[in-house]
């Protein structure tokens, strides 16, 4: 095994350090956040930090660096309160990744990447038509992580749209049936295949 | 597509609600956190909420519900300041999942699950011998998410141990080469296979 010490990775140049630190803690969720600006311009951006916070109430969080690309997403969320989260499937990983480019605020990432939007009745924000799992979320709060100036945005889940064949009888969403991918580091996309679902772990269960 | 509204999932019984809300935002990282108590008892617990926070300084976060099983992990981290994060590979998913059972505080989860510990020179906390990516982390801070009483623990990465064949020339860790898994919901484990790594996305890149 190779040991890379803190002093070693602090001394790396920017890109290798980003690669190493972004890939060392396992896979990340792969989602596109859809928003709309006050003036009606749709926005779409890839996020790999969306994390479950609790089920009752249904809450999630994600991390924003206010000084980098997804700031349009943040501005739109603060202005309108709502956003969509759309699972990324294998068929559109290249387009999804391209949303991380630094487009001007008046650019509609759906148009420029070719990802088809879906508009739903009585909902102002756009969804990704091809996505097998789509969430409507509402901004709830935010916490500044003072150690590095990032913002932990907290949101509630208001509606869940899911393709019927992914949903099991016990309300689990089987993501590999929708070819949902995971992200390795900043730029690696992996396909997935279910190995096993386990029972609730109890003391004394056999291995 | 099926639409499940907030009123619908709030009305579900506990297990289907946990399944649905835990699986709707994509894959989670799959790691074992290793700690040691003040009295010297090793502890190991599966965590699916470990998330990248920043690369310079190298920071990560994870979510704790202080009232549920991993509280031994939390107590040990507060007492000793250090912990290990160990990527879960396909070969030990059953044992890793079993660490989520509610063992008494004097039980050593390494012994009871059969996962082999690894002790490294001058480091007090145990690692998982079979894990292809192991991190030594140090507690930095915590933020209470007041919306549901969870705790967002912030930690620094002090050392990274990685099997040589996973590390590319540009310091990216290719997780599928170590058979690292991802978690779908509470209890589903998936294997992974790299599809593609993309270049840094720039305005004007071809699709």
Describe the protein's architecture and organization.
Two copies of one chain form a homodimer. Chain A is an alpha+beta fold and 207 residues long. The first copy, chain A, is 18% helix and 38% strand. Chain A is built from five helices and 13 strands. Chain A has helices spanning 6-11, 14-23, 71-80, 93-98, 109-113, and strands at residues 2-5, 28-29, 31-36, 42-47, 51-55, 58-64, 82-87, 117-118, 127-128, 133-145, 150-162, 182-184, 188-197. Chain A has a seven-stranded antiparallel beta sheet. In chain A, strands 2-12-13 form a three-stranded antiparallel beta sheet, with no helix packed on it. The model of chain A has no long low-confidence stretch (mean pLDDT 94). At the A-B interface, β1, α1, α2, β2 and β5 of A face β1, α1, α2, β2 and β5 of B.
Low-pLDDT stretches of chain A: none
Helices and strands of chain A: which structural class? alpha+beta
Radius of gyration of chain A: 18 Å
| Average predicted local confidence, pLDDT of chain A | 94
- Describe the strand arrangement of the main beta sheet of chain A, using strand numbers: 4-3-7-10-11-6-5
- Give the oligomeric state of the chains in this entry, treating copies of one chain as homo and distinct chains as hetero: homodimer
Total number of strands of chain A: 13
Q: Helix and strand succession of chain A?
A: EHHEEEEEHEHHEEEEEE
Distance between the termini of chain A: 28 Å
Helix content of chain A: 10-25%
Q: Overall 3D geometry of chain A?
A: globular
Biggest interface goes to: A-B, 115 and 115 residues
Individual helix count of chain A: 5
Main sheet characteristics of chain A: 7 strands, antiparallel
Strand content of chain A: 35-45%
């Amino acid at each position: 095994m190779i040991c890379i010490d803190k002093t070693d990775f602090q001394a790396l140049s920017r890109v290798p350090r980003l690669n190493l630190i972004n890939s060392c803690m396992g896979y990340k969720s792969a989602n596109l956040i859809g928003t709309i600006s006050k003036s009606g311009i749709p926005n779409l951006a890839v996020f790999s930090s969306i994390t479950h916070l609790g089920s009752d109430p249904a809450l999630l969080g994600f991390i924003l660096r206010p000084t980098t690309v997804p700031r349009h997403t943040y501005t739109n969320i603060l202005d309108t309160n709502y956003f969509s989260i759309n699972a990324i499937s294998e068929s559109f990983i290249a387009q999804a990744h391209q949303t991380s480019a630094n487009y001007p605020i008046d650019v509609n990432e759906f148009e420029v990447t070719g990802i088809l939007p879906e508009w739903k009745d009585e909902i102002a924000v756009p969804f990704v038509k091809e996505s097998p799992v789509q969430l409507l979320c509402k901004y709830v709060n935010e916490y500044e992580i003072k150690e590095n100036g990032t913002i932990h945005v907290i949101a509630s889940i208001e509606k869940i749209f899911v393709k019927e064949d992914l949903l099991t009888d016990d309300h689990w969403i089987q993501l590999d049936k929708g070819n949902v991918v995971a992200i390795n580091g900043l730029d690696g996309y992996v396909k997935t295949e279910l190995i096993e679902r386990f029972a609730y772990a109890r003391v004394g269960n056999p291995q």
